[in-house]
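Lab manual, section 2.4: Encoding a predicted structure.

Procedure: take the sequence of the chain (476 residues), apply the prediction step described in section 2.3, and record the output as structure tokens. A sample record is shown.
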Amino acid sequence: MYDKYQSPLSERYASKEMQYIFSPDMKFRTWRKLWIALAEVERELGLPITQEQIDELKEHAEEINYEVAKEREALVRHDVMSHVYAYGVQCPKAKGIIHLGATSCYVGDNTDLIIMTEALKLVKKKLVNVIFKLAAFAEKYKALPTLAFTHFQPAQPTTVGKRASLWLQEFTLDLEDLEYMIGGMKLLGSKGTTGTQASFLELFDGDQEKIDQIDPMIAKKMGFQECYAVSGQTYSRKVDTRVLNVLAGIAASAHKMSNDIRLLQHLKEVEEPFEKNQIGSSAMAYKRNPMRSERIASLSRYVMVDALNPAITSATQWFERTLDDSANKRLSIPEGFLAIDGILDLCLNVVDGLVVYPKVIEKRLRSELPFMATENIMMDAVKAGGDRQELHEKIRTLSMEAGKTVKVEGKENNLLELIAADPAFHLSLEELEKAMEPSRYIGRSAEQVEAFLKNVVNPILTKNQDLLGMVAEIHV
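Recorded output:
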């Protein structure tokens, strides 16, 4: 196992559940289900197919004779016909009607659509659980004041929970896109070599009404509402583009959150989980690197770039089909899902174990708060009899002086002392320090979080409560 390349997505990042969805076993079992569905539909619409043949197909649906198929493919170089042959070996009575009227894309493309739909459902489950954990975090810290940043420069205070609500909102937008995509997934159906259903026109002696029923009946048997109305040989590769764009959107949200967490960990305000025996650096034993958030960012960039693959493939398909999509699809679609699966597991693990350091947060906030509070201080001084224009100029000058003390001399912010020493303000240092209560400067942060959770997030969680309860496993 150590002498050939192994995908890190399988070895390190993706869950067993997502790996199975894109496994050969899932694919070939789905092929057989599609062959059974096609045979049943053809029998129900009047073709000379017996119930005995259908029963034989069902009896061997789960017993895939892989070695027979592998030997046959080495001979004929065609994966679908190799599995038709292998299925026929197990079902001698039914072998003549397996794949009747269909082209390879009947099993290949319909299976791709089924697999992507199942994968999207697993992504939804994990995304909902990330939203659940993040909502609990936002609720817990909705009123904890913290220094906000614009341009990564100190700005008017917010709260830890309000900042988390910004991450949360992006994930809820992703969930909207994800649910829309899942709800719109359709099958290719069985439309023949160029999408014209010519083979079925022959099979059913030109009976248009029966041919019109084929796709809806197949869709129903496979658990779908409908099939795409028209196609070439394949379903439109635009579908792959739309699917990967949803994954890229989730990746972008995860990346943004992970970046914020990495910056906050640098500031020692918030920290991702760090296990007892975890090593942060081979040289610097004291380090606690945000490796999980870094991994989220790293995998997220991969997914965002991966979304280009189906877009380019869709744009370059010739007429009713070319085969230059196949090799690319085998890589870009599964790996995009395996990567987003790993990302969501990491997000769930990180959010569930985020550590907040209120004392560090308060210390940094209070060091900058005098600058933020100058408007309030000026108003209090005006109430005490001062001139607004004169006070504005004074406070501007004193702020510059205090800034120099901090940045040039490396000392503590002394703006309050400078203001208290100026008789124009008529305010004592004690009065000024009373005005430094952080909760006075967070605006409606707590109320906004409460309203957001109540009106947006909680309805989502109630609607999807059957999906809740996941615990993410991180392999490395």
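Check your result against the sample. The chain has a mean pLDDT of 93.
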